[in-house]
Every structure is written in C-alpha cells, then in structure tokens.
Here is the input.
Amino acid sequence: MNTPQLTALSTGQLNSLSDAQFAGFTTTQVAALSTAQVASLSTDQIVGLTAAHASALTTAQVGVLTASQVRALSTTEVATLTTSQVTALTASQVGAMETADMVGMSTAQGAALNTTQVSALTAGMVTALSTAQVVALGTGNVSALTDTQVRALTTGSVAALSTAQVAVLTTGQVSALTAGSIGALSTDQVGALTTSQVKVLTNANIVALSTAQVAALSTAQVTALTTGQIQSIATDDVQALTTSAVAALSTTQIQALSTGAVNALTTSQVTSLTTSQVA
Here is the structure.
C-alpha cells in the first residue's frame, strides 16, 4: 500500500489493519496520516509503532493522541520524541504518561516542557524525576510547581536546585518544603532565599537548619525572622549568627531569645550588641 492509498483509508478501514500491517508502514507514511486517522488508532496499533515511527509524528499528530494512546507509547518511544513534539503535548497528555516514561525523558525534553505541562505532573512523577531533570526545568517551570508537587520533591532534588531556582520559589512553595528538604539546602541556597521566603519558614524548618546554614543567613534574612522563628533557632546555632546579624536584631527579637540562647552568645556577639538591644 502506497502513501496516497493509506491516507485515503477511512478511520474504520485503518483500524481494521493488523498490528503487523500497521507496523510495516514507513515513517513517511505514518507522518502522512491525518490527525483524525491518528486519533482513531487502537492502543495495540500504537504499541506496534517503532521509536522511528514515534519520532516521525508531526506535532499536530502528537497533539491529538488520546490519553490511552499516550500511555501505550513505550518508554523508548517517549525518549525519542523531539523537543518540538514534547512541546506539542497537552497538559492532559503529560498527566496521562506513565511515570517511567517521564523519568526516561532527557533533560532537553524536560526543559522543553512549559509551565502548564509541568503543573500536570503527578506527585509520583515529580518524586521520580532525577536531580538533573529537576534542574533542567529551569526557573519558570519550578516556580509553576504546585505546593503538592513541591512536597513531592525528594531532598536530593531540592538540594540540586540552582540558587536562581530557589530564589523564584513562591512563599507557598517554600512553606510546602519539608524540614528534611530545608535541612538539605546548601549554604549557597540558604543565602539565596529572599526575606519573604525566610519569613514563611515554619518553626520546624528553622529547627532543621544546621549550624552552617544559620551561619549563612544574611543580616537582612535574620532581621526578617519572626519572634517564633528566633525562638526555634537551636541554642548552639545562635552562636553561628554573624556579629552583623546579631547587631541588627530588633529589641523584640532580642527579647524572644531564650535564656539559654542569650547565655550561649559568644563574646564577639555580645560586644556587637547595641545599647538599645541590652537596655
């Protein structure tokens, strides 16, 4: 059967072809199918496609694949999709993918996803993403993650975020981070947090900060802490605050320090206190 004959088939006639017959078509013939013909293909016929067939699909053809057809694509076939084909996928199609198929995508394919597509990822998909794939999402896609998706990120994925990605997280996303994820942040990532982000860290997240992370807090970040957050800083970690940060604490923040925390202040930190702070 030549290409003109193939494209002339009705959807019913096309469906009547055996999987073996359909698999025997060339990539050129598959690319010539109308969107209506592609949408009518059975899942068995989709399964019969080779990776070469999949990568030959036009963006228009990719866009009409049903959820069942998308799930029928093998991990190998999904991995061979071009970035243009990936971009052509609808949010519903992305959400219908098997988790293994999403994990099998290259970083280039992941970077081609738009914010609407990323928002459609299931929590299971997000958890399964490699650190390289999470980094490849870029700043725009990371800021588009829902709070549920952020909670699904592994501590390894959170630790792999670039400082630029950390800085664009919404306050809602930061609030959704687990104590384990906060504790996994590098000192550079901690330093990249905005004062707005710092303000929404839960007390449990403050407790999770290591001495090195507390030491990495800037003066602006420290002065943005609420009294509840100040009280949540471990006594030993208070000693890690820079003298500049201690000197910038408000009287309300100073009063929020526990007796143990005050007694733990180093000589340099005590010397840095202003007269209004000790009054």
Summary: The mean pLDDT is 91. The CA atoms of residues 82 and 220 lie 45 Å apart.
